[in-house]
Structure formats: C-alpha cells, structure tokens
Write a structure and sequence with these properties.
- The complex is a heterodimer of chains A (360) and B (399).
- Chain A is mostly helical and 360 residues long.
- Helix content of chain A is 70%, strand content 0%.
- Chain A has two domains: 52 residues, no CATH class; 267 residues, MetI-like (MetI-like fold, Orthogonal Bundle), CATH 1.10.3720.10.
- Chain A is built from 16 helices and no strands.
- In chain A, α6 packs antiparallel against α7, α8 packs antiparallel against α9 and α10 packs across α11.
- The longest helix of chain A has 30 residues.
- The two termini of chain A are 43 Å apart.
- The relative contact order of chain A is 0.09.
- With 399 residues, chain B is an alpha+beta fold.
- Chain B has a four-stranded antiparallel beta sheet with strand order 1-2-3-8.
- In chain B, β2 and β3 form a beta hairpin.
- In chain B, α4 crosses α8.
- The longest helix of chain B is centred in the first third of the chain and has 34 residues.
- The chains are: A mainly alpha (360), B alpha+beta (399).
- Chain A: Belongs to the binding-protein-dependent transport system permease family. HisMQ subfamily.
- Chain A: Pfam families: BPD_transp_1.
- Chain A: GO terms for molecular function: transmembrane transporter activity.
Chain lengths: 360, 399
C-alpha cells in the first residue's frame, strides 16, 4: 500500500460541458455532421421566429396597428378573448360560464391527487356539476335563463369532453364485458356495435346526430343539438374504450377467474372485486390515449356548426377587421389543446407509477 | 342467498329442483332474450318513427336519386366529370379523391414516420430531443386544427402566383397551391411499367428459388442485390432502348396562372400536409416501440453467429421489430384514411364532402350517411382482413 494515492482527475474533455457535448453531439463523425446541420437549421429558424412571435409582435393593439407591424398579431386573441372563450353567451352574463369553468378546473385539480379520492369528492363532483348546469342554463332567481343555442367557446369544449369521457368510460367497460361474454347473443351485439363504430369516421356519426337523429324521434319532440353531438361523441368513444378494456380483460390469467369462482363470488362481484380492478389498471396508458384523442375530437363539432372554441375563433377570423391573422389565432388554440392533452398524458404516467404494485 | 335461507326454514335442503332463476343456463337464456328484445324494441321504435316522419315530410326513400343529374361542379377530379353527370359518378369522383389523398398521404407518412422514429432513438441528443418535441407536439393538437392552420398558411401567407416561391427549378408554391413539373406522356412509359411488373414477378420467383436452394444445399444467393438490379435495371434498360424520352411538362407563369405541369390545390395540400404531419408522429411512436422491443441480446447473438451487419438487420432485427410495428402502423394508415373525411371542413371534394353536397341537394340524408358509413366500413374491413392475414403469417414465421 503506497502512502500517496495519486488521484488522477478525468481529462477535461470527458467531464462537464465539453464532455457532455463530446458524448452527446460529437461522438462520431456522422453525429458531428448531423449536429452541425441541425444547429444551422435551428439557427436559421429560431431567431426569426422569436423575432416574429415576441419582439416585433403586437399584444393589445387595434387591428390596424397589427397590419402595419411586421410581427405576430396576438391582439387578435386579446381583443376578442371574451368571444373566443364564451361565444354568443350574453355579454353581461359571461361571468357565469367563467365561474363554471373555474369550478370544473378546480374539481379536476383536486381529483388529481389520490389522497382526496373519497365519497366526499364524489359528492363534491355531483354538487359541482349541478352548480355548473345551473350557472350555465340559469332560470333561477337572479340568473336569467340562457338557451343552449347560445352556449359556446371553451365551456362547450370542456362540457363535451368531460361529459363525453365520463359517460363513454362505463359504456366502454360494459361493451368490453359484453364482447367477452359467454352468451352468444350479447357477444354478437357487442361485436357488431364495436366494429361498426370503429370502422366509420366520427364525422359520419356527427352527421347522423345532426341530420338523421331528428327523424328518429316522434313528431313534436326535439332534442337540442349540443346533446345530440354529445351522444354521438359518447357512442363513438365508448367503442374505442371497449377495445382497450378488452385488451386488459384478456391479459388477466384464467386462474384469477377460477380463484374468484372458488371463493363463491358471483359474476358481478368477480368482475367488480377481482377482474376489473386489475384489468383497468393495466390499460391506463392506452385508455388515456383514447381520452386524449376524444378530447381532440370534440373539435370536430365545428363541422356541424356548433360553436366550440375552434368555431368561435373562426368566427372572429371571418370578421373583416381581423381577417388574415389565422396563424396567430390557430397557434393560440394549438397551445390551449396542447396544455389539455399534455396534462392528461402526464397525469396518466404519474398515476401508472403510483398504481404500480411491482416496484415496491 | 336469501332464497337459500327460506328453503332451509322450510326444511327442504336442495332436494327440490332448483327454481329456474338459480340455474345459470336458463338465466343466461332469459337475460339474452331480454337484451335482444330491448334492442329490437328500440330499433322498431326508431324505425317506425322514421318511417312516419318520412311519410309526413313526403321524402321518398331509396337510392333512385343516384341516377339523376348531379348539377354541381367538383373542383378536382381524377376521372372526367362535369355537372351534367349523375350523382353516382359524383360520388365515385369523391371516393377516388379520398383514395388519392389517402394513398399519397400513407406513402409519405410511412417514410417520414420511420425517419422520425429512428431519429427519436438517435444517440445524438439534439436529434432525439427534436424528434421527441415533434412527436409530443403533433400528437397533442387536433388534426382538424392543423388542417385549418395549413389551409390558412396557403391562402393567407403564401404569395400570389406572380410572386410565387420557387424552392426548386420548375416548382412553385403560391396561394393557388403547389405547381410542379411532370413527365410528358410517352408510349415508352407503358413499356417501362410493363418491364417493372415483369421484374417484380421475376424477383418473386427468384426469392422462392433461392430459399428452396438454401434449404436444400445451404448455399446462399445474393437475393437482395440481384433483385435490386432487376427492379431498377430492367425498366431503365427498356426506357433507354426506347430512346430514353425525358421531356418534362414544366409549369410556366402565363398571365395570372400557370401553364403546364401539375397543380396540387391548396385544399389538397393543406389536407395532405395536416394528415401527414399528424399521423407521422403516431407512426414514429410505433416505429420507436418496435425497434426498442428487440432486445440487445438478439443483435449480439446474431453477430456472434458471424452474420454481417446488413444480415443482422435483415434476418434478425427487422423480422422481430416489424411484427410489433405493423399492427399499429396499419391502424394508423386506417386512421389517416378516416381522418381524410375532415376534408369537408376545408372544402377538398373527398367522399364525405361530395356526399354532404348530395344530401343537401336531394334531402336523402339517411341514404347519404349510410353510403358514407358503408364506404368507410369497406376500407376498415379490408384493412382488418389484411391484418388477420398478416398476423397469421408472422405467427407461422415465429413457429
């Protein structure tokens, strides 16, 4: 054992910034070339974009200032934000949908943490949803009634998504159980439904909801358009969730069914206590994938002329004063949708880790 | 449970035949009759209402309207069409437009998606980050919004034909769409195509022969190189033998518009761009997952067997990765086809758009929507038929 242990530091070129660069960007000649090309590309794209989007941009100006300026015109958003967010909802009453949206986001925020998952949160949801309905529709003292034809913008998008997703989920689970059922009639009905719906684009269902559905009802009875679109979205999403849940059901080993049976559980209890908790847990990632696409798909109601947040934006853009600023408006909407979808998929990854029983 | 106890009170323990509601088989039959009955009742209710409504509104049912004159123009068409043609022909034009945009879209999407998926796995930090940002960003923005965005870029941001952008010689990008040169038709191309088909057939035979010989004698044959030479060489040879015609129809600006070449309209371009960029993100994810699913040991084992890198890729990595990649890839292709129905929102005359116009003109809403559903069901069912065939094939390979 020598007394003096000479500590040799690693060479400068393998640690720190230089080391990181060498390892991640310039480790082979090909990678070096690739990095240089990419850096050049970013250098030629990013600074002009930043200049356009931030430095030269006008934020709160009238449209004429925008037309004279060289940068992005975010004013198209800021000057019309109330219409984009709330559509044709009476101007002086727009605090109501605003409160409803805040209430909804608050409830979602609290439901995020599994610590709060209890009966009380369930009641809070029921109370919250009723309160939102009353706020939106009105008709009680102090709140004048607002017809559903005037609902629009962000509240409509959120309404279609939240109710669409919550109603489609149980429907999907029932359909998946139906497809796995041993009863031939139930199985055939489920398979036909699932395959039919999955085979056609959502838009054909929305057309059906908007033009054919009124023919289905007896004379004199009409159902409002929002509800019809909502039903179409639920029926559509349900079929996709069913396929995902089926994957989970098929992944449960047979022994689990037999164990539940030997405990004397009937079909309902077997499913509720043994099979579904495991199956639904396995399929969290694909389910969230379906939910994210259902959230994005609510934008399709534009085509049957419902005033969701995309349609209200287009209405603003068709106003001669703000014509020609589509890029800015659509980028704003893209950010809005991105935030929604990204937080959903981020949350699913978190939930998946929390529910995982394998690692600890 | 409650019934059991009453029976014990009576002192009759399981001796009486079980009442029918405790027999699972009979209960299942009863339950099925109940559900089927409920569905039939609902269907009957809806149909009877519909029939009554149609009679009241004096709407004739049936597909007789298909033979009538359509009397509307369609912006772009693969086959000859004008307003005096029938609705049936208009719908065929729409279906062909759907197929056109889907086919071109799928081909480009697969290449772009594969490229991005591989970039995501690159050891180059910058490239893999950029690919990740692309994938996450594109997946989280509705495709309809993307279509509107690209359409707005075309009609708002791009200049008029006079100031058109020229990314390459003969290629113009302006608010009339993308204009590019195409080869002028020459009879030689027909023979070139025939030569190509013949080469494909020969490659197929060659592969069978080479595999059989390898099974019998163990001798390998450079199938890939010979196939490539055949597929490229034969058509090129025919082309050269027939005088190598290379006249191109190059677009030129005449007045306010372009002459010659071919034009892809802004609607078509916006639809194509939106669908490609959106779907490529999903394809990239599938490709990444597929490549990652092949464990490192496989590559090492193949190399230990003395296979060359190209052979490792072709014989070991790809067959295993493709088995994971192909199913999601097919469903993404189908998604692209289904999403092409959003063309109706930006005015590209695809099948849904033409059917929608037909519904508005004739009032035959039920027939129109039924046709839309039928056409897309045919697409989906044929795709799933292919999937089943493919799954069976790769299963055999596995065994």
């Amino acid at each position: 054992m020598s007394e003096q242990v000479h500590v040799v530091k690693p060479p400068v070129t393998s640690v720190g910034v230089v080391g990181w660069l060498r390892q991640n960007l310039f480790n082979t000649p090909f990678n070096s070339l690739l990095s240089l090309v990419t850096l050049y590309f970013l250098w030629s794209v990013l600074p002009p974009f930043v200049r356009w989007a931030f430095i030269d941009a006008s934020w709160f100006s009238p449209s004429q200032v925008c037309r004279d300026g060289a940068g992005a015109c975010w004013s198209v958003i800021t000057q019309n934000i109330r219409f984009i967010l709330f559509g044709f909802y009476p101007y002086d009453q727009q605090w109501r949908p605003a409160v409803a949206v805040v209430l909804l986001l608050g409830l979602l925020f609290f439901s995020r943490d599994r610590k709060y998952w209890s009966k009380r949160l369930g009641y809070a949801w029921i109370v919250g949803l009723v309160a939102m309905g009353v706020l939106m529709a009105g008709g009680v003292p102090g709140l004048p009634a607002v017809e559903t034809t005037k609902w629009g913008g962000l509240p409509l998008t959120l309404l279609l998504s939240v109710f669409g997703l919550t109603a489609a989920y149980p429907l999907g689970v029932i359909l998946a159980l139906g497809r796995q059922s041993k009863m031939p009639a139930i199985k055939v009905l489920s398979v036909v439904y699932i395959e039919m719906i999955r085979g056609v684009p959502l838009i054909s269902l929305l057309f059906m909801a908007s033009i054919i559905f009124p023919l289905f009802l007896p004379e004199g009875i009409t159902i409002n358009k929002i509800l019809r679109a909502q039903v179409a979205i639920i029926l559509f999403t349900g079929a996709y969730i069913a396929e995902v849940v089926r994957g989970g059901l098929q992944a449960i080993p047979k022994g689990q069914y037999e164990a539940a049976e030997s405990l004397g559980l009937n079909y309902y209890l077997t499913m509720r206590l043994v099979i579904l908790p495991q199956a639904l847990k396995i399929v969290i990632p694909p389910t969230v994938g379906i939910l994210v696409s259902a959230f994005k798909d609510t934008s399709l109601v534009v085509i049957i002329a419902l005033y969701d947040v995309l349609k209200t934006t287009q209405t603003v853009l068709s106003n001669p004063e703000w014509m020609g600023f589509s890029r800015e408006a659509y980028i704003f909407l893209a950010i809005l949708y991105f935030l929604g979808c990204f937080s959903m998929s981020h949350y699913s990854r978190k939930l998946e880790m929390e529910l995982s029983t394998e690692n600890h | 449970m409650a019934l059991d106890t009453t029976q014990t009170h009576d002192g009759v323990l399981r001796e009486k035949p079980e009442p029918f509601w405790l027999d699972p088989k009979k209960r299942a039959i009863f339950f099925q009759i109940l559900v089927v009955g409920a569905v039939a009742l609902l269907a009957w209710y809806l149909i009877s209402n519909t029939v009554a409504n149609l009679q009241r509104q004096k709407i004739a049912t049936g597909f007789g309207f298909l033979g009538k004159e359509a009397s509307f123009e369609i912006g772009e068409s693969v086959i000859a069409y004008d307003a005096s043609n029938t609705y049936a022909r208009a719908l065929v034009v729409g279906a062909l437009n759907t197929i056109k945009v889907s086919f071109i879209g799928i081909v480009i999407t697969v290449f772009l998606g594969t490229f991005i998926g591989i970039a995501r796995l690159s050891s180059n930090w910058l490239i893999s980050r950029l690919a990740a940002i692309y994938i996450e960003g594109m997946q989280d923005v509705p495709v309809l919004l993307q279509l509107f965005f690209w359409y707005a870029i075309f009609y708002e941001t791009l200049p008029s034909p006079r100031q058109a952008l020229k990314p390459m010689h003969g290629v113009f990008l302006c608010n009339r769409g993308l204009v590019m040169p195409v080869p002028e038709w020459h009879p030689a191309y027909g023979y070139v195509f025939l030569a190509f088909a013949a080469a494909c057939l020969m490659v197929w035979g060659l592969r069978r022969w080479a595999r059989k010989r390898q099974d019998e004698t163990g001798k390998t044959f450079p199938v890939f190189r010979v196939s490539l030479a055949l597929v490229l060489g034969l058509p090129l040879g025919v082309w050269a033998a027939l005088g190598a015609p290379f006249a191109m129809s190059v677009p030129e600006l005449r007045g306010f518009n372009f002459r010659g070449g071919t034009t892809w309209s802004p609607e078509f371009m916006a639809l194509l761009l939106g669908l490609i960029l959106y779907t490529a993100a999903f394809v990239a994810e599938a490709v990444r997952a597929g490549i990652q699913s092949v464990s490192k040991g496989q590559r090492e084992a193949a190399m230990a067997l003395g296979l060359r890198p190209a052979q490792v890729l072709r014989l070991v990595i790809l067959p295993q990765a493709l088995r994971v990649i192909i199913p999601p890839l097919t469903s993404q292709m189908l998604n692209l086809t289904k999403n092409s129905s959003l063309a109706v929102a930006i005015g590209y005359p695809d099948f849904v758009s033409v059917a929608n116009t037909t519904i508005n003109q004739t009032g035959q809403s039920i027939e129109g929507v039924a046709l839309i559903m039928l056409v897309y069901l045919i697409f989906s069912l044929s795709t799933s038929a292919f999937m089943n065939w493919y799954n069976k094939k790769v299963k055999l390979v596995e065994r």
